[in-house]
Specification:
single chain; alpha+beta; Creatine Amidinohydrolase, Chain A, domain 1; Creatine Amidinohydrolase; 2 domains; five-stranded mixed beta sheet; three-stranded antiparallel beta sheet; 16 helices; 17 strands; 34% helix; binds manganese (II) ion
Length: 512
């Protein structure tokens, strides 16, 4: 077999001549001597790492950022780090594929004790955090010019160890040092990893556990994921500020979409037009959309996860849009508005809209510290069921339907829950245990959505004909305060009259 020092090249790339290899590293200006500023999000991560450290004394904690994911062939999706990694490092949009945060336990030795004939007692004493990442290669390294996935000539300049330390406030080491750091004292120091983020790293740690004959149960890693999720249930001030920014940027995006309704109607595939206009503002103001936008016009609104978004926008229909901007720190908004395409609700549309709004208000009234998470849904769904009953649609009484064991008929028209936690992930804290989430209690600093809906499919023969094909959801993001809640997404109107007035302003209609 022919040995070659040339990096493996795509078959369409011309091999590099010796003359080029000698020439390419020469005559570049030096890298800047000044270190970059600390990332705003990184100012808030030390307390979080301290909390994690206190929860896992004496354990090695491994939190990977994740890897580049192939979209197809040799193109990757834009990189988005795992939320636990972002939370603990402050590294956000596009940073930092393959990186790994390791919290290594410190120990202090106390004096020998009669009860311990081996000698010194060793007590866990906090953790040392280290960020392992791929620092930029020197220009003499083939990576500089030949590596289309990581090389500076291809994807831009990466940080040095010192620069990354300045940005994150974390001691940094090269990724190549990680395997030895993971295996050190593994027989005495138990390790936990967030699995399913970086398969190669998980496999490596599992192999090291085997070779060190560690008595290891996979549930230690599951518990770690749970802990990392539960840590994020209560947001700090910086997080709430970021979520507010995400909601404000989302309002800007919604306004731009409404302004473009006439174009969306005229151009065809209007749902796509709306999705695209919002995406423009999500990319411009933030990192991206926090989840695939739902732009569901007419009967599509009754498909809960309508993300195909290939339908027309029709004058006289509603469009349900569930969209959120994810800011550069990766916190996302999650907002739904259901709007009349021509700016005016029909009486039937308004009837359903007002019912959903009443349900949302009841949910928000129930959202206060000390109340259960479930109470928000229970308050909202009762209002939904009452309206269904009043309209003669519910086949049983309200209380019978709301009976969780025997009933549930109302769920035909609102299948989903009213709330979820919101933060770095749109469905934040998803690994938290039920007793802290669904069965948990609301505390100041928690951020949740309140998003009831009523969905009448065009094919639903139980629904009065004039209401068929109408689907409405209204979703806002709230933070629990000391005495109630505050709406973060309040820059967008909710009352039907206010929606019409707001739309008239954006569409330039003054009539009516
Ligand atoms: Mn939501």
């Amino acid at each position: 077999m022919k040995d070659t020092l040339q990096p493996r090249l795509p078959n369409r790339q011309t091999p590099f001549s010796d003359a080029f290899v000698a020439f390419i590293p020469t005559d570049w200006a030096p890298y800047p001597a000044d270190l970059p500023a600390r990332l705003p999000a990184a100012e808030h991560t030390a307390d979080r790492r301290d909390a994690l450290s206190a929860a896992c004394p004496g354990e090695r904690l491994v939190v990977p950022a994740g890897v580049l994911k192939v979209r197809s062939n040799d193109t990757d999706y834009p990189f988005r780090p795992h939320s636990a990694f972002a939370y603990l490092t402050g590294l956000g949009a596009d940073r930092e594929p393959d990186a790994v945060l390791v919290l290594d336990p410190r120990f202090t030795e106390s004096d020998a004790d009669a009860a311990d004939p081996e000698g010194a007692l060793v007590e866990p004493d906090g953790h040392e955090a280290t960020l392992y990442f791929k620092p930029r290669a020197p220009r003499t390294d083939p990576e500089f010019y030949a590596d289309a996935r990581y090389g500076e000539m291809w994807v831009g300049q990466r940080e040095s160890l010192a620069e990354m330390e300045a940005m994150t406030g974390l001691p940094c080491r090269a990724l190549s040092d990680l395997p030895s750091a993971l295996s050190a004292d593994l027989d005495r120091v138990p390790a936990r990893i967030v699995r399913d983020v970086d398969d190669r790293l998980t496999t490596l740690l599992d192999e090291l556990r085997r070779t060190h004959e560690v008595d290891f149960d996979a549930c230690v890693d599951e518990e770690f994921a749970t802990l990392l999720s539960e840590m994020r249930l209560i947001k700090d001030d910086f997080e709430i500020e970021q979520l507010q920014e995400a909601c404000d940027a989302t309002a800007v995006g919604f306004e731009a979409v409404v302004r473009d309704f006439p174009a969306a109607v005229a151009n065809g595939r209007g749902e796509r037009w709306c999705e695209g206009v919002f995406a423009l503002h999500a990319r411009h103001r933030g990192n991206d959309v926090g989840y695939g936008s739902i732009c569901a016009a007419g009967d599509h609104a009754n498909t809960l996860h309508w993300i195909r978004n290939d339908g027309d926008l029709v004058d006289g229909d509603l469009i349900l849009m569930d969209m959120g901007v994810e800011v550069d720190s990766l916190y996302t908004a999650d907002v739904t508005r259901t709007l009349p395409v021509n700016g005016r609700f029909t009486p039937a549309q308004r009837q359903v809209y007002e019912a959903v709004l009443a349900a949302q208000k009841a949910g928000m009234d129930a959202a206060r510290p000390g109340a259960t998470f479930k109470a928000v849904h229970e308050a909202a769904i009762r209002v939904v069921a009452e309206h269904l009953a009043a309209w003669g649609i519910l086949p049983v009484g309200v209380d019978e339907s709301l009976d969780q064991v025997e009933g549930g008929q109302h769920r035909r028209w609102m299948l989903h829950g009213t709330s979820h936690h919101l933060g770095l992930d749109v469905h934040d804290c998803a690994q938290a245990r039920a007793e802290f989430y669904r069965e948990g209690t609301l505390r100041p600093g928690m951020v949740i959505t309140v998003e009831p809906g009523i969905y009448f499919k065009s094919t639903d023969l139980l629904v009065p004909e004039e209401l068929r094909g109408i689907g409405v959801r209204i979703e806002d993001d709230i933070v629990i305060t000391d005495d109630g809640c505050r709406i973060l997404s309040d820059k967008l109107p909710r009352e039907a009259d206010e929606v019409e007035a707001w739309m008239a302003g954006l569409l330039g209609n003054s009539e009516g």
